[in-house]
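Subgroup meeting minutes
Present: P.N., E.W., G.H.
Scribe: E.W.

1. P.N. recapped why we're keeping a running log of single-chain structure predictions: easier to compare across weeks, and new members can see raw inputs and outputs side by side.
2. G.H. added today's entry (407 aa).
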Amino acid sequence: MTAPTRREFAAVAAASACAATAAADPPAPPPTRPFLTPAGEFRDVSRGSPVPHTLRGPAQVAARLTPETWRLELTADPAIEEPHTKQPASIARPLTTAAGTALDLTALLDLGKAHQVHFLKAMQCLNIDTPLGQGLWTGVPLREVLKLAGRMNNVRRVYFYGFHNNDPKQRFQSSVDYTHAMETPPGELPAFLAYRLNGEPIPPERGGPVRMVVPWSYGFKSIKWLQQISVTNNPRNTDTYAEGNNDPEAVLKSAAFSDRVPEKLPADRPLTIRGVVMCGPSGVRRVEFWVRRVEPDSPALADDAPELLRAPWAECPLDPQPDWGSVFPVGVRPQDVLGFDRTTGRPREWPLRYSVAPFTATVRGLAAGRYEFRARAVDLNGFAQPEPRPLQKTGKNGILVRRFEVG
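Output recorded in log:
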């Protein structure tokens, strides 16, 4: 490793002093953002032309996108394709609109009386470097719906589709393997059909009346406007996202996302930066931050730059947990939410997997000049963001840089 340049050494020394000052500060007040994102405030990345949630009146009824007209078909894929698929999948009781046996919303809600689950999950697009919003999702595990079809044979994967204007070219689809659908290990979260968001019916903008929610994955797996499920003996993944060189089996990355900061700050005012950390399956050990002084001609740093790897990262405290009784909607007890202890009503781990938790960093004593702020997550395996990332399309996970000027 080469020795740091004089400029690098000065920047590291200044950042170390700032980090030490920040560590001595008392905890900052909680962020003003709500812990649950209101349904209308999620960032929207819906596809389609027209986008399905913009349909109104007879067009919405014809598309079966109202609570009264929604139907879900559950069928078996008859395809045989050597050498991958030698026998077709079969089920005892197909659910189809033609036969009048498709599942309607009333029947799904009745199924929920015995099998309903609540789960806290943040939605994030695979290729966008910030979460879209976090909600409390309520629904029925996919396995309970699959049981309605009776005995299955030669099923290795479950495909599911959402309404996209009855245009095959627009169809958006995803899938999970049979084991993840049916054999959820104790303590793990199941894929499920969601019909409520934050205690209310899911609006069309968020994929209602019913959407799939796959907790461990990015949003492309949580298909909106769900209407068709097909079990298949085809072992291959046919997700729409795979067509764009994306990894269709990518799981959420543990990553920190800092908010924007003012471009200029007075020298006598502390810098407070807030953000959220996404907790993927690998968990979150800590959030770290680094303030770097720069000059107008300072080159941008890559995520694997030596200066960044050996920088004096300082631990950034997470904000206190909220009062869960006041966070969740009326009628939902914390004890009833998956991932929460049934006795204490507290999360079994914090941050809670597949959700975001807020953090706050306060830095004082910065001299006049230009600076960069970075925050990163370190997971329970010891990986510091952006690792592990063997393929760029497994989830956008770069370290956000916030630039500002003091004085």
